[in-house]
Amino acid sequence: AISEQMTASSQEIAASMEQAVAISEETSATAQEVSASTEQQLASLEEVSASSVELSRTAQELNGAISRFRV
Asked: In which region does residue 27 sit, left (phi positive, over 0), alpha (psi from -120 to 50) or beta (all else)?
């Protein structure tokens, strides 16, 4: 009877540990997805920033060109 209880307890502990491992693996996978998404967003923001700088330069050039035609 005690041996059976110990075996049952050991099986419960093993099942709990397997569940904890599965949860840890899932959490790790989710963290990797979040990290990849964050890197992608950062790259997009850098592109937007570069485009904003270029747009500002173009606007300054256009303002300079337009000012030549003002009377």
From this structure: alpha
Q: Residue 70: in which H helix or E strand, if any?
A: none
Looking up tokens 């990849």, which residue turns up?
36
Exposed, middle or buried by CB within 10 Å (0-12, 13-18, 19+), for 62?
Answer: exposed
Q: In whole angstroms, what is the distance from residue 19 CA to residue 35 CA?
A: 24
At 46, give phi and psi (nearest 5°): -65, -40
Half-sphere exposure (Cβ direction) of 60: Cα atoms closer than 13 Å: 6
Query: Which tokens is 56 given?
Result: 């500002």
Rg of the Cα trace of the chain? 31
15-53 pLDDT per residue, tens:
999 999 999 999 999 999 999 999 999 999 999 999 999
pTM of the model as a whole: 0.62
